[in-house]
Amino acid sequence: MKTTTKHDERMATMIFASVYPHYVTKVEKKGRTKEELHLVINWLTGFDDAKIQQLLDEKVTFEQFFQAAELHPNIHLIKGVICGYRVEEIENPLTQKVRYLDKLVDELAKGKKMEKILREEK
Asked: For residue 8, what pLDDT is reported?
């Protein structure tokens, strides 16, 4: 699925620390915890709590955030629609990674079981 150049540039330059509080609010409003959010971020990126905090403090862009990440080998199992885009069809690699994170946060907020969110191939 094609996204516009403007959309992709906006994703790249967006500051992770500006979006993070919205992730926390979204999951906590639905009865999940910040710790569960960090578990999801860790699964996707390999970042522990200290690294997440460091990236928040440094106010990194999503481009810098994902450049520092070691993505989980099972990210190809993340499928579905988020923000009107089917994540597995997004052509821009960075935009796709941002939407993967959005999708995992959304699944957490919707009450999906953690073992389903943290995809393991069968």
From this structure: 84
| Domain 5-116 listed as CATH 1.10.8.290 | yes
Residue 102: per-residue pLDDT? 96
Q: Alpha-carbon distance 119 to 76, whole Å?
A: 9
The answer for 120, left when phi > 0, alpha when psi is -120 to 50, beta otherwise, is beta
Where is 2: in which H helix or E strand?
Answer: none
Cα 35 to Cα 32: distance, rounded to the nearest angstrom: 8
Write out the two tokens for 71.
């993505």
| Domain-wise residue ranges, the chain | 5-116
Query: What confidence score (pLDDT) does residue 114 get?
Result: 94
Assigned token pair, 122 = 């069968």
Stated pTM of the model: 0.92
